[in-house]
Amino acid sequence: QVHLVQSGAEVKKPGASVKISCQASGYTFDSSSIHWVRQAPGRRLEWMGSINTDTGNRRFSQNFQGRLTLTWGTSTSHMDLSGLRFDDTAVYYCAKGGGNIWYRAWFDAWGQGTLVTVSS
Amino acid sequence: DIVLTQSPGTLSVSPGERVTLSCRASQSVVSNLAWYQQKPGQAPRLLIYGASTRASGVPARFSGSGSGTEFTLTISRLQSEDFAVYYCQHYVNRPPITFGGGTQVEIK
To answer: Model confidence over B33-56: pLDDT tens digits?
Structure first.
């Protein structure tokens, strides 16, 4: 069974960075992309970016260009968001990409979510 | 960016009723559309991909249809566990991937 387990909640000050990890199990890690999606209070789900865990290729939403770093290791992906603002307060999810084209993916498994609160 | 508009925003229904949710894309996404169910405090759960293919383990009462810019998620007979928010998502070639604003299905 596929499982994605994320690191715990974070509280950060404006301007700081946050790093969230996503530990995958139950499938061959480099066979599927990992995507990052966030959900701010009262707002729709927002795709942030994705990483091909086989080649290391990445795609980013322009909304996060320059602030978002995606890395990966053994069965783990990391998301690093810098220059935090109050409106970055959200639940951040990692999700496993489905389908044969890594950047054109639906999300067939999700982590449990990590709440990031940006507060002074 | 491709904008996905879901309607209605909220749907009040009784258990056992048939439910139809709509997702409209601002430009064609062909059949590159997925549907998710999200319950409070939980991550979204994949229901449908490719506009009409049920994900593994999803009950047959859930069905998806449509192509191009108009899509529908139908729940044939609503069960108590189906009260949730439903989102559509496109995954065409050009980023970003986007989601609709969601439809909340609540108990009447």
So the answer is: 999 999 999 999 999 999 999 999
